[in-house]
Amino acid sequence: MSSTQAANAQYLADYRPYPFILDQTVLDFALSPDATEVTATLSLRPREAVEDLVLDGGRGVELLSLDIDGRAPDPAHVRRDGESLTIAAAALPDAPFALTTRVRIDPSANTAFEGLYISGGIFCTQCEAEGFRHITFYPDRPDVMAPFRVTIRSDKPVLLSNGNPVAIRDGFAEWNDPWPKPAYLFALVAGDLVAVSDRFTTRSGRRVDLNVWVRPGDQDRAGFAMQSLIKSMRWDEDVYGREYDLDVFNMVAVDDFNMGAMENKGLNIFNSKLVLASPETATDADYERIEAVIAHEYFHNWTGNRITCRDWFQLCLKEGLTVFRDQQFTADMRSAPVKRIEDVHTLRARQFREDQGPLAHPVRPERYEEINNFYTATVYEKGAELIGMLKRLVGDDGYASALDLYFDRHDGEAATIEDWLAVFQDATGRDLTQFKRWYTDAGTPHLTMTEDWDAGDRGGRLTLNFTQHTPPTPGQDDKPPRVIPIAVGLIGPNGDEVQPTRMLEMTEARQSFTFDGLGARPVVSALRGFSAPVILDRPIDDRNRAFLLAHDTDPFARWEAGRDLAMSALMSLAQGGDAGADFIDAIGRLAADRDADPAFRALCLMLPGEEEIATALAARGATPDPDAIHAAREDLARRVAEAHADLLARLYDAMEVPGPYSPDADAAARRSLRIAALGLLNRIDRGDRAEVLFGTAGNMTERMAALNCLIRRGRGQAALQALHDRFGDNRLVMDKWFSVQVMAAPPQDAVAVATQLAARRDFDWKNPNRFRALLGGLAANHAGFHAADGSGYDFTADWLMKMDGANPQIAARMSTAFETWPRYDKGRRDRALSALQRIAAMPDISRNLREMVSRMIA
Ligand code: 0A1
Ligand code: ZN
């Protein structure tokens, strides 16, 4: 790494409080698309002795005037570079003072969607993590918090900011946010918008006006978002005792947004795909995600806004906890076991994958160059797993009292992971020194379990022997043992549970646990509920896996047994062997089990994805062959379909949901089982069922499932045309139209399909959703992206380079398509590396993309 790169790095160890206290922020915006003027008055006072005052401020911020207590300082005391503005201590009073700056910015030129920009004619902002510095000069760091007063002048009809409205009239609005907040939670929206409105009364009787703001014409797709908000508000009161704290809560949907959504205080801004939904345009998965993300952003009001992060190294403090809370919420709204399985599935697909390669980092990183590169599965999803583990270790009551203490002790503060753990220690008396390693040490622990059975000892004694080992990750070679909660149950030979779930606490590198008085040897159900984010290796044969799939009382462990069976069949097929009959038999019995939740059966029927298989192979030290994996998976799916053709056909018919569409969990569960059956039958019915379904489906869930099947059978053209004819002017549906074609294309055609789509006029690549639809679609086509000739790598690299000039955040995020490159064969590795080197050599590469690529090729 060159010294210039190292000079850009930020280190946790370097933290120092800001030398000034900010008592109040007053902002005035005179909006104009290419020349917006921002006047900022900051009431500051020195924390101790007066030092130079350093304000963050990007290149696009043009300073028009600056004064201190109404007077311009000597210009010799004001220094500007590309990233900041410094006022020498000599120009500052040793007492409270007001600093006023006037700046000009150009929102219309902002294609990075960071700071103030325009999306479809709507002025909007995105300030996390460091976007505010593109709006004005400011101490843009989360531990500098202040109440905000904001005035907006604009001819747009709706003018919004954080907090409560003070005055709204034609061309003018004033907003007051009394809750001190860091700049990253600032927001402003100005546009031609209409609201779906409702009202909520908090349990202490505060009346809150709720608005979901959308473009005129989109109101009929905003009702579900409003209902999700109301459910979230009630749930946070019921479960965490947290009430909302302003008179209004506004949500806005915009089409151009780098991420999913943003928790700005009292003014959440959403990617429109996470607000707008109708049965005609959104799938069941979209509905579930909308409900979860709205909850997530709302929950941030307490975990993120009222208590924020001291610095960006502590990002997991708000994100891990808020993801955990939104997972709990979804579990309560829908099916808890199904939600747990889905979450583990996502964790493995995204976080285990990240942990396995060059981008692995701790849940709390200690160094970064560009913080936007750390909004990762590790910080979010693994961060949530750590909260779940803590809860398991201290129990539900311990968790509840720790959370109460957290809110009491840190309300209004910018906190750290040390503060978070101290709260648990103080509330429960438990020493969490070893647990902290989960935050500081990267990598997925590998856990092995062996069994010793002694029929003669103590009425039948079972000993479980565990070892833990975490492979090295970049910059961290040695990993001391962590505390691992391992939930274990035992199932007797007749299928009855002889030992209900017991939480074993492993703290050593190797450790054994015994169970006595068992009579006959039981089958061990281990890591129930996925009690820790580890990879468990145990010698178990397919017969016992099938036994667990049939009898385990823990739904996660049951699903996992089926997963293991499928993996074992796939590994065997991928290596030229045969598929074990156990999997095919067991899966048939489960599919036919009318007592089981249809959503659970659907999850069991879905074979592991190609990426997941590759990750599992790599974790075992093998080199995944994308083509062989693709072939093995197709082969197994066809065998399952052939073996269970009648059963699947019956399920497909029986799971039809009569009546008008409803996105509720039960209806969605039936559709998911129906679609899982369709996906398998599609292998043997030439796509005939899919064709009928596409023509008759009254909702987007079944329509997209059918389209996917048709493309896989090479007969998608007419359906694609029909979808385009009907929904060509709906951006969200067209995003699906782009992605499904690349994702479902036969691997050998994927790059050609992507190339052809990228040449279309409606491939509006600067729109993050459209770009992700196409490039993300290709990355999701495992064997297509990893085409042996390197064409997937080259296509992706070309587009990342182009995108980097417009929107570095999106380019950097999409570059993670390459994060697994070191695990493939030499030919692929060489081609991926040369694509990455080509990117690295780009003359004006952004800090975002440069950091990602240099970590990947380090
Ligand atoms: N805090 C938001 C996610 C978010 C992060 C960064 C953004 O811009 C770079 C935008 C949104 C959340 O967790 O929902
Ligand atoms: Zn969040």
TrEMBL record:
The keyword Hydrolase applies. SUPFAM superfamilies: Leukotriene A4 hydrolase N-terminal domain (SSF63737), Metalloproteases ('zincins'), catalytic domain (SSF55486). Residues 443-538 form the Peptidase M1 alanyl aminopeptidase Ig-like fold domain. Its EC number is 3.4.11.2. Its cofactor is Zn(2+). Residues 80-185 form the Aminopeptidase N-like N-terminal domain. InterPro entries: Aminopeptidase_N-like_N (IPR045357), Aminopeptidase_N-like_N_sf (IPR042097), PepN_Ig-like_sf (IPR038438), Peptidase_M1 (IPR001930), Peptidase_M1_dom (IPR014782), Peptidase_M1_pepN (IPR012779), Peptidase_M1_pepN_C (IPR024601), Peptidase_M1_pepN_C_sf (IPR037144). Keywords: Aminopeptidase, Hydrolase, Metal-binding, Metalloprotease, Protease, Zinc. It catalyses: Release of an N-terminal amino acid, Xaa-|-Yaa- from a peptide, amide or arylamide. Xaa is preferably Ala, but may be most amino acids including Pro (slow action). When a terminal hydrophobic residue is followed by a prolyl residue, the two may be released as an intact Xaa-Pro dipeptide. Residues 543-857 form the Peptidase M1 alanyl aminopeptidase C-terminal domain. Residues 224-438 form the Peptidase M1 membrane alanine aminopeptidase domain. NCBIfam families: pepN_proteo (TIGR02414). Belongs to the peptidase M1 family. PANTHER family: PUROMYCIN-SENSITIVE AMINOPEPTIDASE. This is Aminopeptidase N. It comes from Paracoccus stylophorae.
